[in-house]
Design a protein that fits this description.
The protein is built from three helices and twelve strands. The protein is mostly beta strands and about 150 residues long. The longest helix has 10 residues.
Protein backbone atom coordinates (compact mmCIF):
# COMPACT_ATOMS: atom_id res chain seq x y z
CA UNK A 1 0.00 0.00 0.00
CA UNK A 2 1.53 3.33 -1.02
CA UNK A 3 1.64 6.22 1.38
CA UNK A 4 0.82 9.69 0.06
CA UNK A 5 3.30 12.50 0.67
CA UNK A 6 2.68 16.20 0.37
CA UNK A 7 5.44 18.32 -1.12
CA UNK A 8 6.48 21.62 0.44
CA UNK A 9 5.43 23.33 -2.79
CA UNK A 10 1.89 21.93 -2.41
CA UNK A 11 1.79 23.03 1.24
CA UNK A 12 2.97 26.53 0.34
CA UNK A 13 0.37 26.74 -2.44
CA UNK A 14 -2.29 25.72 0.09
CA UNK A 15 -1.09 28.38 2.53
CA UNK A 16 -1.25 31.08 -0.11
CA UNK A 17 -4.69 29.89 -1.20
CA UNK A 18 -6.04 30.47 2.32
CA UNK A 19 -5.87 34.24 2.73
CA UNK A 20 -5.21 35.46 6.23
CA UNK A 21 -8.43 37.48 6.18
CA UNK A 22 -10.55 34.43 5.36
CA UNK A 23 -9.02 32.25 8.05
CA UNK A 24 -9.02 35.01 10.68
CA UNK A 25 -12.81 34.82 11.00
CA UNK A 26 -14.01 32.66 13.89
CA UNK A 27 -13.82 29.03 12.90
CA UNK A 28 -16.39 26.38 13.75
CA UNK A 29 -15.16 24.36 16.70
CA UNK A 30 -14.03 20.86 15.74
CA UNK A 31 -12.79 17.93 17.77
CA UNK A 32 -9.04 17.86 18.38
CA UNK A 33 -8.67 14.79 16.15
CA UNK A 34 -10.02 16.79 13.19
CA UNK A 35 -7.07 19.19 13.43
CA UNK A 36 -4.65 16.37 12.57
CA UNK A 37 -6.51 15.23 9.46
CA UNK A 38 -4.22 15.52 6.40
CA UNK A 39 -5.20 18.66 4.52
CA UNK A 40 -6.80 20.13 7.65
CA UNK A 41 -6.20 23.65 8.92
CA UNK A 42 -5.95 24.58 12.59
CA UNK A 43 -4.85 27.64 14.54
CA UNK A 44 -1.85 26.90 16.80
CA UNK A 45 -1.44 30.48 18.12
CA UNK A 46 -4.19 33.00 17.37
CA UNK A 47 -3.52 36.56 16.15
CA UNK A 48 -1.44 38.59 18.58
CA UNK A 49 -0.18 42.15 18.05
CA UNK A 50 3.46 42.73 17.18
CA UNK A 51 5.57 44.87 19.53
CA UNK A 52 6.50 47.73 17.19
CA UNK A 53 9.75 49.71 17.17
CA UNK A 54 9.57 53.44 17.93
CA UNK A 55 10.18 54.45 14.29
CA UNK A 56 7.09 52.52 13.11
CA UNK A 57 3.44 53.65 13.12
CA UNK A 58 0.74 51.00 12.85
CA UNK A 59 -1.82 51.38 10.08
CA UNK A 60 -5.54 50.97 10.76
CA UNK A 61 -4.98 47.23 10.39
CA UNK A 62 -2.34 46.97 13.12
CA UNK A 63 0.43 44.38 12.54
CA UNK A 64 -0.14 40.98 14.15
CA UNK A 65 1.22 37.44 13.89
CA UNK A 66 -0.11 33.92 14.36
CA UNK A 67 0.84 30.29 13.76
CA UNK A 68 -1.40 27.95 11.77
CA UNK A 69 -1.03 24.27 10.96
CA UNK A 70 -1.90 23.32 7.39
CA UNK A 71 -1.74 19.63 6.47
CA UNK A 72 0.49 18.98 9.49
CA UNK A 73 2.98 21.79 8.76
CA UNK A 74 3.26 24.96 10.90
CA UNK A 75 3.29 28.36 9.18
CA UNK A 76 4.08 31.76 10.68
CA UNK A 77 1.68 34.31 9.22
CA UNK A 78 1.60 38.07 9.67
CA UNK A 79 -0.99 40.64 8.71
CA UNK A 80 -1.53 44.37 8.94
CA UNK A 81 0.49 47.32 7.82
CA UNK A 82 2.63 50.20 9.03
CA UNK A 83 4.21 53.44 7.93
CA UNK A 84 7.84 54.30 8.46
CA UNK A 85 10.75 56.28 7.04
CA UNK A 86 13.37 53.56 6.48
CA UNK A 87 16.46 54.58 4.49
CA UNK A 88 18.41 51.43 5.42
CA UNK A 89 17.66 47.96 6.77
CA UNK A 90 15.62 48.55 9.93
CA UNK A 91 13.88 46.74 12.79
CA UNK A 92 10.09 46.71 12.51
CA UNK A 93 9.58 45.26 15.99
CA UNK A 94 9.33 41.86 17.65
CA UNK A 95 6.99 38.89 17.73
CA UNK A 96 4.78 38.56 20.81
CA UNK A 97 6.45 36.37 23.49
CA UNK A 98 3.97 33.50 22.95
CA UNK A 99 5.20 33.00 19.36
CA UNK A 100 8.70 31.60 18.86
CA UNK A 101 10.38 30.48 15.66
CA UNK A 102 12.91 27.63 15.32
CA UNK A 103 15.06 29.32 12.66
CA UNK A 104 15.48 32.59 10.78
CA UNK A 105 12.43 32.98 8.54
CA UNK A 106 12.31 35.15 5.42
CA UNK A 107 9.37 36.38 3.35
CA UNK A 108 8.61 39.05 0.76
CA UNK A 109 6.04 41.79 1.39
CA UNK A 110 4.61 44.69 -0.64
CA UNK A 111 5.97 48.17 0.02
CA UNK A 112 5.63 51.63 -1.49
CA UNK A 113 6.63 51.60 -5.17
CA UNK A 114 9.84 53.58 -5.42
CA UNK A 115 12.02 53.53 -8.54
CA UNK A 116 10.15 50.41 -9.70
CA UNK A 117 10.84 48.47 -6.50
CA UNK A 118 7.57 47.41 -4.87
CA UNK A 119 8.56 44.63 -2.47
CA UNK A 120 10.96 44.12 0.42
CA UNK A 121 12.31 41.22 2.45
CA UNK A 122 10.90 40.78 5.94
CA UNK A 123 12.95 38.52 8.21
CA UNK A 124 12.17 37.09 11.67
CA UNK A 125 15.12 35.74 13.66
CA UNK A 126 15.07 33.20 16.50
CA UNK A 127 14.96 36.01 19.10
CA UNK A 128 11.69 37.20 17.51
CA UNK A 129 13.20 40.38 16.03
CA UNK A 130 11.50 41.41 12.78
CA UNK A 131 13.69 43.27 10.28
CA UNK A 132 12.77 44.94 6.98
CA UNK A 133 15.45 44.82 4.28
CA UNK A 134 15.81 46.77 1.05
CA UNK A 135 15.57 50.47 1.89
CA UNK A 136 18.34 52.84 0.80
CA UNK A 137 18.85 56.60 1.08
CA UNK A 138 17.75 57.00 -2.56
CA UNK A 139 14.98 54.37 -2.37
CA UNK A 140 13.31 54.74 1.03
CA UNK A 141 10.52 52.55 2.38
CA UNK A 142 7.54 54.57 3.63
CA UNK A 143 5.02 51.75 4.18
CA UNK A 144 4.83 47.95 4.21
CA UNK A 145 1.91 45.55 4.37
CA UNK A 146 2.49 42.16 5.98
CA UNK A 147 -0.66 40.45 4.63
CA UNK A 148 1.31 38.24 2.23
CA UNK A 149 3.77 36.96 4.87
CA UNK A 150 3.28 33.20 5.33
CA UNK A 151 6.41 31.09 5.93
CA UNK A 152 6.91 27.38 6.74
CA UNK A 153 8.37 27.05 10.25
CA UNK A 154 9.93 23.57 9.90
Amino acid sequence: MSQSRTSRRALLAAAVAVPAAAVSAPMIAAPAAAADVPGGISVVQDWQPLVLAEAVTAATDAPAARVVKIAGTDFLQMRGGFTCAFTADAVLGTLPPAITVPKTMRGVCPRNNSLGVNSCRVEVNTAGKITVFGATASNDITWVTLDSYSVVMA
